[in-house]
Design brief:
CATH class of the largest domain: Mainly Alpha
Mean pLDDT: 83
Structural class: mainly alpha
Low-confidence stretches: 1-8, 308-314, 316-329
Largest sheet: 3 strands, antiparallel
CATH superfamily of the largest domain: Intergrase catalytic core
Strand content: under 5%
Shape: globular
Number of domains: 2
Radius of gyration: 25 Å
Number of helices: 14
């Protein structure tokens, strides 16, 4: 029988073991490790400040006190919910490792979050963003390629920065992507994204690489693998250059990818597979955006959609029968 360590393992040691587990068994990204380490440790310090030094003494009262403290410090509900989710994962781990009898975080409810619909770019905004980089230099060619690939394949930013040269299948026009939970999936490339990749590999990547050797696909100016933070920064820069009302993020392009597919007639299951969503319910949020646009097109285009009842009854005023054609959505790779 495995020896119980409950009540004997320090909070700090339990966190160290948890982070090791995330690295070794869950293959979590450095960003995830840093965030879990920082935010779970924040709770553990709060516990110690309340005189709690053992996992066995953590209870719901302490957890609720911590959540109340976060709220008093001005943390958003989404941030508090994320921290509680991380603590639940930590709790599952310590129970699995026999460091605690039960997961005290499991029975604590997360704050109610308002449903936020994705805010995709319009077709015109997307085109403006893709054209924003200056392609007269290596970094501009790289940045244009990044934007093209993000939009064409609907990648998460971590998936993009994790791409290697070996990730590209030129014969099938595909990328082999490692998504959440170390799950592999296939992302598709349209013609513009494929050509942008060829140009980047021929003209820009060799300049960025210099004398270094790496299989990383997207490189920084020193020849190392590009970070997620760098990608976020370049999106902010090109959003301003393209004249967008608010800065686009890598996830904005992922939202745009999904919404444009649905607007173009793609079925929900196909979009789910292309996004790498485990649950269809995760993908369904995009149908609300697509339905909103469908309503706008209907009201604008249907000859009787906006006809007044009195005009129809009296026959004195017909409906506007002029149909306006909406812009066609851009397909992956447009």
């Amino acid at each position: 029988m495995r020896r119980s360590l409950k009540g004997r393992t320090t909070l700090k040691r339990a966190l160290e073991r948890f982070l090791t587990y995330l690295i070794a068994e869950k293959n979590a990204s450095p960003h995830t490790i840093n965030r879990y380490g920082r935010e779970v440790n924040e709770f553990l310090k709060h516990a110690e400040a309340q005189g709690i030094h053992s996992l066995a003494d953590i209870d719901r009262t302490l957890i609720r006190h911590y959540m109340g403290w976060l709220n008093s410090q001005g943390y958003a509900k989404a941030s508090i919910a994320r921290r509680l989710s991380q603590l639940r994962s930590f709790g599952r781990f310590v129970v699995r490792e026999n460091l605690a009898v039960a997961n005290p975080f499991r029975g604590v409810s997360s704050p109610k979050l308002p449903k936020r619909l994705p805010s995709p770019l319009s077709v015109q905004e997307t085109v403006a963003l893709l054209r924003a980089p200056d392609q007269s230099n290596a970094q501009g060619i790289r940045d244009r390629t990044i934007l093209e690939v993000l939009y064409a394949a609907g990648l998460r930013v971590s998936e993009l920065t994790g791409l290697n040269l070996s990730s590209i299948d030129w014969h099938r026009n595909e990328l082999s992507v490692w998504g959440k939970g170390s799950k592999q999936r296939i992302a598709l490339l349209g013609a513009p994204a494929r050509q942008a990749l060829r140009d980047y590999l021929q003209y820009a990547r060799p300049q960025l690489l210099g004398k270094r050797t790496t299989d990383a696909l997207f490189l920084n100016r020193l020849g190392g693998r590009l970070t997620t933070r760098s990608v976020m920064n370049l999106l902010q820069k090109y959003s301003a250059r393209a004249g967008l009302q608010k800065p686009a993020t890598p996830h904005t392009l992922r939202h745009t990818f999904a919404t444009h597919l649905l607007n173009g007639g793609a079925d929900l299951r196909s979009v789910q597979e292309l996004l790498g969503h485990a649950q269809l319910s995760t993908t369904q949020v995009y149908t609300h955006v697509s339905q909103t646009r469908a309503r706008e097109v209907y009201l604008r285009s249907h000859p009787l959609a906006r006809a007044r009842t009195e005009n129809l009854v009296s026959g004195t005023g017909g409906a506007d029968t002029t149909s306006q054609t909406s812009n066609s959505p851009v397909s992956p790779g447009h």
